[in-house]
Amino acid sequence: MGFGDLKSPAGLQVLNDYLADKSYIEGYVPSQADVAVFEAVSGPPPADLCHALRWYNHIKSYEKEKASLPGVKKALGKYGPADVEDTTGSGATDSKDDDDIDLFGSDDEEESEEAKRLREERLAQYESKKAKKPALVAKSSILLDVKPWDDETDMAKLEECVRSIQADGLVWGSSKLVPVGYGIKKLQIQCVVEDDKVGTDMLEEQIGRDSQQ
């Protein structure tokens, strides 16, 4: 069983005759049997061997998918017509020779190198964009109520004392006086703080201390 020497005209003729009524070496879809025979052929068969040439070009189109084709690759002598003597020698030797002339190998290696290069370029671009992107700063808008000690408290002076409080990450906003009863008004003032730098406890403590002065 086998095709003989597929690098010789006689072997290619056997392959051509074998494929006269077949699309593939085994079955009805491309398989590892086709890969094994393809790798044993040194190049495209001549044009007069039309069946072998048709099969060769078709299997060559599966270069990038060869590893995923179904089946298990066997020794070359396990394929082909039963009445042809296997002249390929041991499977191990043939496998080594096939590896030396692997028509798919170089393309796979080039594809792998190209994919690796593209991956590294995209990773570098991502890291560059990430480094340029400003860090997100968490901020909060706070509305503070500042009550006077009594109805004689100077509210303008009280607001001035509150706004005198300065800190990194603190920005004072609008304010207004809100009646609380008996002619007394409280100061309602808004501010924006960076959460990591300024806390409400710190503000309330400092406002209470300053308003007593």
From TrEMBL:
Keyword Kinase: no
Domain Elongation factor 1 beta central acidic region eukaryote: 103-130
Any GO MF annotation of the entry: guanyl-nucleotide exchange factor activity
Coiled coil: none
Matches recorded under InterPro entries: eEF-1beta-like_sf (IPR036219), EF-1_beta_acid_region_euk (IPR018940), EF1B_bsu/dsu (IPR049720), EF1B_bsu/dsu_GNE (IPR014038), Glutathione-S-Trfase_C_sf (IPR036282), Transl_elong_EF1B/ribsomal_bS6 (IPR014717), Transl_elong_EF1B_B/D_CS (IPR001326)
SUPFAM superfamilies: eEF-1beta-like, GST C-terminal domain-like
Family annotation (SMART domains): EF-1_beta_acid, EF1_GNE
GO cellular component annotations of the record: cytosol; eukaryotic translation elongation factor 1 complex
Record keywords: Elongation factor, Protein biosynthesis
Protein origin, superkingdom: Eukaryota
All copies of domain Translation elongation factor EF1B beta/delta subunit guanine nucleotide exchange, residue ranges: 139-212
Function: Catalytic subunit of the guanine nucleotide exchange factor (GEF) (eEF1B subcomplex) of the eukaryotic elongation factor 1 complex (eEF1). Stimulates the exchange of GDP for GTP on elongation factor 1A (eEF1A), probably by displacing GDP from the nucleotide binding pocket in eEF1A.
Family statement drawn from the similarity comment of this UniProt entry: Belongs to the EF-1-beta/EF-1-delta family.
PANTHER family: EF-HAND AND COILED-COIL DOMAIN-CONTAINING FAMILY MEMBER (PTHR11595), ELONGATION FACTOR 1-BETA (PTHR11595:SF21)
Protein's name in the database: Elongation factor 1-beta
